[in-house]
Design a protein that fits this description.
alpha/beta, Rossmann fold, 21 helices, 10 strands, binds adenosine-5'-triphosphate, binds magnesium ion
Length: about 600
């Protein structure tokens, strides 16, 4: 999915898909196109006007022509002005609409990407897709297509006028035209490759910046400012260079086109100097012809530049569609259980995060009766977190199956499965919102303030919440940064309590809290675990001792199972772990 690895998608397909996004708005699109056509058609009309003006007034000595001319001029300008406005407005409308729709689809895709995809991509790059690439598409749609339409038509109209005024002179176009065509298509190819590289580079700039912003505390404490600044400089400079390549190409194309064009002009002047030609053309026609030819320069230059804009859009659209086409979380199950008792079973479950990667879990068999608590213990990296992640299907097992109340969780609708599970993670995730909304996150719309308050009481969070300046309406800052670690955990417990799901997953924080907080958090979790099937990755002695069964993990396998007392009596891995964690003298309480 990262832009760096993507292959260049077929540009026609990409453009067709972009147009597909515009299809629902075809009426406005049509209005824009018609307005453009009117606008384009009126361009040559100005040039045409010169011929009767000059031939009429000076050659045929009829000054009345000059008297109508200002009126016609103003009339034409008004119509052209309205058409120009309509064209710009509606093409702008359609392209902004397409971008809004594209962003909506992209965001929806973000929400549905599997965890594994997120593991492989950087959030900075995804953000750059959402913000930067879509803008490229917008520009390509309005300025690109519409511009080509408008300027293309203007050029065609002017050519028609030139042919009409004098066929012989127009033959010059047969030489100039192909030359221009070739150079524009050459340049356009180069634009596409440059555009892809600019996008890629925007992604990297976003990625480095996002990382430094997210990790700003670590950057400060570990004196990483210079390192981060250098990293950013590198990407930023690369971005500058790539943009300069585009600007150079643009400028070169402009000059080259001008040169070819002026050569054409010179050829016309030369041809006119020939007696045979001069006698066949009136001064009015000649000036009209030359006016038409000079009016062509700007649209031709713009069309050449538009090729660049369109290529940018194609490159951006390509990587956007690649993102939209990347796989979503598998959600093929159809069973919807209104309620589950909470009996959970793992049957010979194995997991490898990457297809050809190491097996992280091997043959896990677990059976948790309804309402019971199992504790997972084991060294760091033994697979505890991996094991519990499989239950809400954050990752899919590579072998084996997991059942809830006897139903394979793959057969359940994903939302239904997750409806029955509450989760308190090792790292508490809070949203930059009020405390009330954070607690009510999993049960939006169905909870009253009173229920939120009750959950806060049960989670031992009420006293600190009430001491905050705005109580439940206090905003907690990004990632809940305005709260202490223990406070965050109690909010997370309240959130899980309020969800009131029959299955609870608990990844206990390893970070030590002070005795007071620890007691509060502990009590909150104990309330939470009552009458729920609980899978807990336990670091606290009291949690481990309370568990109905303890599973000891090592290298992705469950190597011992039993209660605390049973395991302590055996010469077990557990005993070793226990002494390591709680010290030789730790006495079970
Ligand atoms: N998202 C991931 N992608 C690839 N490999 C992963 C991913 N998460 C974990 N792993 C690997 O899986 C193995 C088990 O990790 P896991 O997080 O399950 O350990 P853990 O028992 O929870 O450790 P800890 O007690 O430190 O939290 C580790 O070797 C780790 O490198
Ligand atoms: Mg873990």
């Amino acid at each position: 999915m990262s832009q760096a690895t993507s292959t260049a998608p077929n540009s026609m397909t990409t453009y067709r898909r972009l147009l597909h996004y515009a299809a629902p708005y075809w009426r406005r699109f049509l209005v824009a196109v018609i307005a453009m056509m009117v606008y384009a058609a009126l361009g040559p009309a100005f040039a045409k006007l010169i011929q009767p003006l000059i031939d009429g007034s000076f050659v045929n000595n009829d000054p009345s022509v000059l008297r109508i001319a200002p009126l016609v001029l103003i009339g034409l300008s008004i119509v052209r002005g309205i058409a120009g406005f309509g064209g710009d407005y509606y093409s702008g409308w359609v392209s902004r609409r397409v971008i809004t729709d594209l962003r909506k689809d992209m965001f929806d895709q973000f929400l549905n990407l599997p965890c594994a995809t997120y593991d492989r991509s950087s959030s900075g790059q995804l953000m750059s897709q959402l913000l930067f690439n879509t803008e490229q598409v917008a520009e390509s749609l309005t300025n690109g297509i519409m511009g080509i339409f408008r300027d293309g038509l203007t050029i065609i109209g002017l050519i028609a006028l030139m042919v009409y005024e004098n066929v012989q002179l127009s033959l010059v176009l047969l030489i100039v035209g192909p030359l221009l065509g070739i150079s524009i298509s050459r340049v356009s190819k180069r634009f596409r490759s440059i555009s892809r590289r600019i996008q890629e580079s925007m992604g990297h700039v976003g990625h480095v910046a996002q990382e430094a912003i997210d990790a700003q505390r670590i950057v400060k404490v570990f004196n990483g400012k210079t390192y981060e600044a250098n990293k950013f400089d590198q990407e930023n400079e690369l971005n500058f260079q790539r943009y300069m390549k585009r600007i150079a190409t643009e400028a070169f194309a402009g000059s080259a086109i001008q040169l070819i064009y002026v050569s054409g002009f010179a050829a016309v002047l030369y041809v006119v100097s020939l007696d045979a030609v001069r006698s066949s053309i009136t001064p009015g026609s000649l000036i009209s012809f030359i006016a038409a030819m000079s009016m062509m320069l700007s649209p031709i230059k713009r069309v050449a530049n538009l090729a660049n804009v369109v290529q940018r859009g194609i490159a951006a659209g390509g990587s956007i569609f690649e993102l939209l086409d990347s796989g979503r979380e598998c959600d093929t199950g159809t069973i919807e259980l209104p309620r589950v008792a909470g009996q959970v079973e793992y049957r010979r479950v194995s997991l490898a995060y990457q297809e050809d990667g190491d097996t992280v879990l091997t043959d896990i068999d677990l059976s948790i009766p309804q309402g019971k608590t199992i504790a997972l213990v084991g060294h760091s990296g033994s697979g505890k977190t991996s094991l519990i992640r499989l239950l809400p299907r954050l990752y899919e097992p590579t072998a084996g199956e997991i059942r809830v109340d006897g139903v394979n969780i793959r057969d359940l609708a994903l939302a239904n499965l997750r409806h029955h599970i509450a989760y308190v993670g090792q790292e508490v995730t809070l949203f930059n919102d009020t405390i009330a909304n954070n607690i009510g996150y999993g049960s939006r719309g169905t909870t009253t303030r009173e229920q939120i308050r009750e959950a806060a009481i049960a989670a031992h969070a009420l006293s600190f919440i009430e001491s905050l300046p705005e109580g439940f309406d206090t905003r907690v800052g990004e990632q809940g940064i305005l709260l202490s670690g223990g406070q965050r955990q109690r909010i997370a417990s309240a959130r899980a309590l309020l969800k009131n799901a029959p299955i609870l997953i608990l990844d206990e924080a390893t970070s030590a809290l002070d005795a007071e907080s620890e007691r509060h958090v502990q009590q909150a979790l104990e309330t939470l675990m009552q009458n729920r099937t609980t899978l807990v990755i336990a670091h606290r002695l009291s949690t481990i001792q309370r568990a109905d069964q303890i599973h000891v993990m090592k290298d992705g396998r469950i190597i011992e199972t039993g209660t605390h007392d049973e395991l302590m009596q055996r010469q077990s891995h557990y005993g070793e772990l226990y002494r390591l964690q709680f010290g030789k003298d730790a006495v079970p309480t």
